[in-house]
Design a protein that fits this description.
Uridine Diphospho-n-acetylenolpyruvylglucosamine Reductase, domain 3; about 20% strand; 17 strands; Uridine Diphospho-n-acetylenolpyruvylglucosamine Reductase, domain 2; Vanillyl-alcohol Oxidase, Chain A, domain 3; single chain; alpha+beta; about 30% helix; six-stranded antiparallel sheet
Length: about 475
């Protein structure tokens, strides 16, 4: 029995395809990564079918590239050596919402729109990154270690116990989901580290090279009883970051972020392109957004305490920081922005990063907040050398864990129909990334061309990863050619 016949039998003819037009859809994504054509696309319905497909591929040394949705931005699901694309979008069940333990268990194909809608019905929310695509897999984003807009330490790691299919075909549950009787056991799978072995970090940032995650537990939080959104126009980023160093360690605020005028205009504009152009010229260079929330217990007192503390800090230590419930010149902005921060980007509107010129190459990394302005200066110095205007760069500063660290992200917008523009941005992206890496930027998600730069700099770490990969994936079938594999 050849591969086509076997795979079609495993998932059913309607869930198998080798049609050129279908394969073409999986050969590229929203990134500048070169395309790569798979040989087959299969859509399993459950972990047992995933297990059979992976076992067959392992026995026959056929590459497998897992994907949970068709919305990808970094080239991580583009087949580099052909093989099977394992599309998990049919596995889109919300398996349980555990209100007592504030936990939800979802399959890999559950999208941001789907999960947000269902949790809202039960009074919960998922702590999310900045405006995720409505049709993107939630689990994919958290396996990729995306940074949430909420700076509270407790929410920084939402991923808990999970089930995986190893590259050799075994099904494995980790953490407290590994106990007998799960999911009906007392443990409820809430702890990713025990009593089972702590394997879950193997899969974070692994880009499908270590196995297939079929479901996972995620932390959820109650929807706040009340919120207040504050804005501050910012000219001096360093001054604003010093302010965050002062307030965030005191656990003041929930969502907190800084956006430059390009990014904020792309998010807020409704009439395109006229309103976008108007916002570019009227918004301040940067805007600080801070959400203060009252949760289930004594919400009014909590907000009153935080407002009092903010007032004292502003008056006594940061008199030039003008924090208010509305951004000057933009009345009613708080009513518009909070729903945006608590929901995925609307599915019926072009994705915000692609609205400006049609496409966007994202460059992001982790650093110390005190170093952020230095990296911004480097990018602004280098971009014009490639003919890229500084005024077109979107920039996003996201504090992590009460400003202990930060996620710094640059958006290079380009015309996807213009080959010259694409090549210019691709070269600029690579060269700027190398310069930032040399200055200490920590790339936690080394996608595409970043992978060899990162792993060459960390040679001993890359060697250890290859040894681990050999143990769990002896035939190197899982997304070969990705990362350092």
């Amino acid at each position: 029995m050849d591969a086509k016949e076997k795979l079609g039998k495993l998932v059913g003819a309607e869930n198998f395809s080798d049609a050129p037009e279908v394969l073409l859809e999986y050969s590229q994504d929203f990134s500048l990564s070169p395309p790569g054509m798979p040989n087959y696309v299969v859509k399993p319905k459950d972990a047992q079918e995933v297990q059979k497909i992976v076992s067959f591929a392992n026995e026959n040394k056929i590459p497998v590239v897992p994907t949970s949705s068709k919305v990808h931005f970094y080239g991580a699901t583009i087949p580099r050596q052909g093989g099977i694309v394992l599309d998990l979008s049919r596995m889109n069940k919300i398996l349980e919402v555990d209100a007592d333990n504030r936990r939800v268990r979802i399959e890999a194909g559950v999208t941001w729109e789907q999960l947000t809608r269902e949790l809202r019905k039960k009074g919960f929310r998922i702590i999310m990154p900045l405006l995720p695509h409505a049709e993107r897999s939630v689990l994919t984003d958290y396996l990729e270690r995306v940074v949430p807009t909420n700076t509270v330490y407790d929410y920084g790691e939402p991923l808990q116990a999970m089930e995986v299919v190893w590259p050799t075909g075994e099904i494995f549950r980790m953490g407290s989901a590994s106990v007998d009787g799960y999911p009906d056991s007392l443990s409820k799978g809430g702890n990713p580290s025990g009593p089972g072995l702590d394997f879950y970090r193997f899969f974070q940032g692994a880009q499908g090279t270590m196995g297939v995650v079929t479901w996972a537990n995620l932390k959820v939080e109650s929807i706040p009883v009340m919120d207040k959104v504050f804005f501050a126009p910012v000219d001096d980023v360093e001054y604003a970051i010093e302010f965050l160093y002062r307030i965030l360690p005191r656990r003041v605020g929930q969502e907190c972020l800084l956006l430059n005028n390009v990014d904020l205009a792309a998010i807020l504009a409704e009439q395109w392109p006229d309103e976008f152009e108007r916002l570019l010229t009227t918004l301040p260079p940067w805007t600080l957004i801070l959400v203060v929330s009252g949760l289930l217990r004594r919400p009014e007192e909590k907000i009153a305490y935080e407002e009092k503390f903010l007032g004292e800090v502003l008056k006594n230590e940061f008199p030039e920081m003008h924090l208010a419930e509305n951004l000057p010149g933009f009345p009613g902005l708080h009513k518009k922005l909070l729903p945006l921060l608590r929901n995925p980007w609307p599915a019926d509107v072009p994705y915000w990063k692609n609205r400006y010129t049609g496409a966007c190459q994202n460059l992001f990394f982790i650093t110390r907040p005190v170093l952020a302005s230095q990296f911004m200066y480097m990018v602004e110095e280098m971009a014009p050398q490639y003919g890229y205007p500084v005024s077109d760069i979107g920039t996003y500063f996201q504090p992590i864990e009460h400003n202990r660290a930060c996620h710094l992200e640059f958006h290079f917008f380009y015309d996807p129909t213009n080959d010259v523009d694409k090549e210019r941005v691709r070269i600029m992206y690579r060269d700027i990334a190398q310069a930032l890496l040399d200055e200490g930027a920590f790339f936690t998600q080394p996608y595409g061309e970043l992978a060899p730069l990162v792993y060459e700099k960390a040679a001993s770490y890359a060697m250890t990863l290859r040894r681990v990969k050999k143990v769990f994936d002896p035939n190197n079938i899982m997304n070969p050619g990705t990362l350092c594999f």
